Amino acid sequence: MEAMTPEDAVRVTDPLERAGVLSRLMAEHAGLLTEAAELRRAAVAEARAAGLSVAEIAGRLGVSPARVASMAGGPEPAVLVRRALPTDPAVRASTSLFLAEAERQGLEAGRRMLYVGPEPAAEHVAACLRVEPGAEVIARRKVMTVGGMPVRVATSYFRADLFGGTRLAEPGFVRPSLQSALVALGHSFGRAEETLTARPPVPSERETLELDPGEWVVQVLRAGYSTDDTPVHVLETICAATRHVFTVGQVPGHDEF
After folding, report:
1. Which CATH superfamily, name and number, covers 81-248?
2. Which pTM was predicted?
């Protein structure tokens, strides 16, 4: 009997039978990922034994040198970046939230822009921006690294009707900062809501963050509104869960055991 694919599963008419088939497919896929990771580890170790350097292997595979060490069974760097909730206002007003946080922690940090342009709004982003799911919004997506290891993917979302044709829709980083650009466009900060969700990564997140099977991500979604309650900026940060520590601030004078 041939193995069933997701395309086959969606043609199963009974919804509970379909759910059962998909559950089995997910379990089989997880097992395959684990087996593939072990085989990859052996292949990288073989390449190292043949005399290839970590840098050469990293270049061929398109991953960071730190990730190669992990693939080969060596100790993975203890990359623990602190992400404060709620965000310190002084940090948010800096050139880069991530670089400011990393500097405070003495980490060797970097960032690279992945994409700037229009894309359809996912349901959770659309709800924050008060547009219809699938509506075109402006996305600014970048990856953050520590010691060459990717730790976060951060995407800023803006309503196209408010920010289309502005510098926020142009390629590259906004100088001197995104916050100053928003103020220059006439938006005064009113309030923000931050939510944190732990979940398995989607394929693109797993690839960009170089995650092994079984590793999860933590999604921090921050929606910022102006003083007149206009949805100005939605920031979705996808963090490699094992490489972060999340600190939650307390209200002064109201701590309890």
Report:
1. Chorismate lyase-like (3.40.1410.10)
2. 0.71
